[in-house]
Amino acid sequence: MTRWFTASEVRLALRLIVKQPVLSITIVVALATGVGLATVGFTLRDAVLNGSLPFANGDRFVRLVLHSEAEDNVELDLEAYHAIRDTSKSFAHLGAAGDAAFALENPDGTIETISVGLLTPRSFRFLPAVPMSGRLFAAADGDAGAEPVVLLRESLWRRRFDASPAILGRPIQLSGVTRTVVGILPDSFKLPSAGEMWVPLDEATLAGRAHGSNASLTVFGILRDGLDVDGATAELSAYSRPERQGRPGTATSVRALPFTGDDATTDMVMSGLVAVLVLVLLVVASNIASLVFARTWARSTELAVRTALGAGRSRIVGQLVLEVGLLVATASVLGIGFARIVLAYLVGMISDVPFWMTFDPTIRTMGFVVVLTLMVSAVAGLAPAIQVTGTNLIGALHAQGRGTTPGGLASVGRVLVIEVALAVALLNAAIVTARTFRSYIDEIPALPKGQVLTARLSGTHSNETRDRLLAGIRALPGVVSAGAASHLPRLDPMAVPFATESIDGGAPSETASAPVTEVSDGFLESIGGRSLAGRLFTSHDSLPGAAPVAVVNQLFAARFFADRSPIGRRLKLLPADAGGTAPWREIVGVVPDLGVSAGDRSRGTGVYIPLPARTSSLSVAIRSARNPNTLAGPLRKIVAEIDSSADVRGIRLLEDVGREQRSFLSGMAAAMMALGAIALLLAVVSIYALLSFLVTRRTREIGIRVALGARRAHVLAMVCGRTFALVTAGAALGTILGVWIAGFQSVMLIRMPDVGVATPLIVIGALAAASIAAAWLPAARALSNRPAQTLNSD
Q1: Residue ending a domain, choose from 558, 592, 624
Q2: What is the pLDDT of residue 211?
């Protein structure tokens, strides 16, 4: 039994690869990039959509959410939770989990922010939690009036309490509440998150008593044996609520989703990302196939000689595929290494990664890479080999002697059109995507740097409580101004439909949408807002009975009022039923762009309105004449004194708000630009190789034309004209495809700007220059020879 490849064939393939180092390195680097990016895409999608809780029966845990046309997959309300828990037959257990930040008061008076997991006590008996010492929560710990208790994580126990067993049964101060430590859990237990403590949720209110009920919670169930997600969802339809009269889109249905999975939107986004990255790989494979195609045709004489000496077609094809296969295998190994580096970078840039998500390529992903390697080997090696060896190689050998072009090269034109089209489409998509990512990290000139401290306060705050908090903050030494708002800059508040009052007193304008931020007096001043026209908010604007007012940003004024002043004009924020019950608000001021919308600035039309009487989860901004970081401790102290149920979270400078997202997007923008540069370089090299080889093969034809009296300019125009026509056809096709890809990304991923004119022209110009040079230089060399010398060269 003979082997498919002998040792001598492998050595020959390696020698031929080393003999052409530039071509070999180009193929390996390009393909390693493509395989690496495709592996990253599949790994991310697998981690986000196919993860499971890492313990026995973890796949039976589901999340329960409310779905409506108005708002998709929101937190299940308390009434529905109790109804399902008490009557549903689908679940062996129903519980709730969440996380929040608590203030741990140390004996020396310092305050430390601790991440705390919130969990219904009865849920522990269904979880793989075994205390190192002490006990777990008992069912009675979730009853109203029960003694406040807490569980510690092993790492916190060792770090903060010196691993002392005496901590059991002792009280600690947590956000103003005295809680008794009842147990120590190992670091390996991480439900609902990797918090450093656990606090029981009150079963009646789903709140961590004396903490408030505003923490984000996940209601979860454990399916009974024999039931799946679809079966549970079918039973949950009994808990749906009909649409309220006059409120379209308010009908809600309860759904069960895999605990670690996500909704259809995330599935679409991740699938779109994978599709784009696989497209990148296909373009890279196409370019490599072109290079191998030209290289194989250049070896037609060698192949003809081997055929004349008795080598069969299968042996020649096998040798050619072996050479490409070795390059592809090398590239695949490097691609996996590249993917691991990229994934490690992405994980470092993403905060609060769920504990069940692992971003290491799985066996399934590795299998994908193997299949991908075989496919690319077939496309890049087998197809050119079959096409070249399918011609009469002996006849090609005689044709080479006569200086004519083998007939198989007629397909080079079609290959060139496809090559240019794919390159233009991919490069347009890469550049537009990179521009979009960059727009999310652009500086906002109006926002001050190094002067403003921000924080998030949980809990429900009345006007009185909010005013006391802000008064206390403003009284701190060095504070210039302070204010509160529903959102900080760059964090994209929800777009709300609105109508503006008609100029001529007629009907209101057509409905549009704009992000709306609720703010107190002093907030706009604290983040760098200044009045370009009119005034800013005062404390009177938030009082009950005050006239409804609004402040808009400069882009809003320019878009909806053109060259007219918006001051004194009115707008109405429309409620969900669009019934017109909302008040008309007078526009009293205009401010510059303060980052109301990250990314596409065309969407940054912002509206600011006064904070309502009662608010939850406020963001505060404190502008200081000193180092604002020194205000973190005093801020925690003031909040604890005025509202002990509020948590202080996310203390950071204003310029650091959203830094993790911006770092991630910055890396993605750099990756897309690098990918575009690699694709452009590879496209230029492969197109040059194709055309240069094609024109070189026509050297004798060019000599004959000149000998028969053809003018040199006419010959050059003939050679370059056909090249220009092919490039133009490919560029037109690629531009159409690029526009479609950008539109697809806008739907599946994030809002993309228009492709525009400049980007396609730059890409087409680079490819056209490479194509014309590839045709011009060999033709010019052929024309520099004397006709007799050209005709007698063979």
Answers
A1: 624
A2: 46
Q: How many CB atoms lie within 10 A of CB 445?
A: 8
Both tokens of residue 526?
Answer: 């604290």
* Whole-number percent of the chain with pLDDT over 90: 13
Q: Residue 222 falls within a domain, yes or no?
A: yes
Q: Residue 407 in contact with residue 487, Cβ under 8 Å? A: no
The CA distance from 659 to 671, in Å, is 18
According to DSSP, the residues that pair with 61 across neighbouring strands are 222
The angle subtended at Cα 732 by Cα 726 and Cα 736, nearest 5°, is 145
| Residue 129 phi, psi (nearest 5) | -105, 115
**What is the Cα–Cα distance from 117 to 192, expressed in whole angstroms?**
6
Question: What is the pLDDT, as a whole number, of residue 31?
Answer: 79
Residue 578 and residue 572: Cα distance in Å, rounded? Answer: 10
Q: Both 577 and 616 in a single domain?
A: yes
Residue 444: CA count within 13 A, CB half-sphere:
26
Residue 705 domain-assigned (yes or no): no
Bond into 192 cis (ω within 30): yes
519-573 per-position pLDDT tens digit = 999 999 999 888 999 999 998 888 888 899 999 998 888 888 877 889 998 888 8
Interval 307-361: pLDDT, tens? 677 667 777 777 777 887 788 888 888 888 888 888 887 777 665 667 777 777 7
Which amino acid, one-letter code, is at 504?
D
| Chosen domain end from 624, 649, 674 | 624
Structural domain includes residue 191: yes
> Is the same domain home to 161 and 68?
yes
Mean pLDDT of 280-297: 69
The parent domain of residue 7 ranges over: 1-51+283-397
Among residues 628, 619, 618, 620, which one has the least CA distance to residue 479?
628
Dist CA 247 CA 255 (whole Å): 21
The pLDDT score that the predictor gives to residue 691 is 66
d(CA 706, CA 671): 49
Sign of CA pseudo-dihedral 487, 491, 496, 499: positive
Give pLDDT, residue 110.
Answer: 72
Do 107 and 190 have their domain in common? yes
Q: Among 476, 478, 458, which Cα is nearest to 620's?
A: 458
Question: Residue 399: is its pLDDT beyond 60?
Answer: no
Q: Are residues 68 and 47 in the same domain?
A: no
Separation CA 414–CA 34 (nearest Å): 23
Tokens of 405: 């072009």
Residue 633 lies in a domain: no
Each residue's pLDDT tens digit, 125-155: 888 889 999 999 998 998 878 899 999 999 9
Between CA 561 and CA 583 the distance in angstroms is 20
Alpha helices in 225-362 (DSSP H): 229-236, 264-298, 300-308, 313-349
Claim to verify: residue 106 and residue 236 sit in the same structural domain: yes
| Location of structure tokens 């257990």 | 93
620 vs 634: CA distance, rounded Å: 14
Distance CA 709, CA 696 (A): 20
User: pTM to 2 decimals?
Assistant: 0.59
- Nearest CA-CA partner of 258 in 473, 50, 521, 73: 50
The answer to whether 439 and 603 are in contact (CB under 8 A) is no
Q: What is the crossing angle of helices 363-377 and 21-49, to 10°?
A: 140
Specify the number of domains making up the chain: 3
* Residues 41 and 83 grouped into a single domain: no
**Which pLDDT score, from 0 to 100, does residue 748 have?**
46
Q: How distant is the alpha carbon of residue 61 from its chain centre? A: 26
Neighbouring-strand partners of residue 338: none
Q: How far apart are CA 142 and CA 203, in angstroms?
A: 5
Same domain, 67 and 181: yes
- Residue reference for tokens 């993403």: 350
Confidence of residue 735 (pLDDT cuts 50, 70, 90): confident
pLDDT at 653 (0 to 100): 86
Domain shared by 93 and 221, yes or no? yes
pLDDT given for residue 608 in this prediction: 93
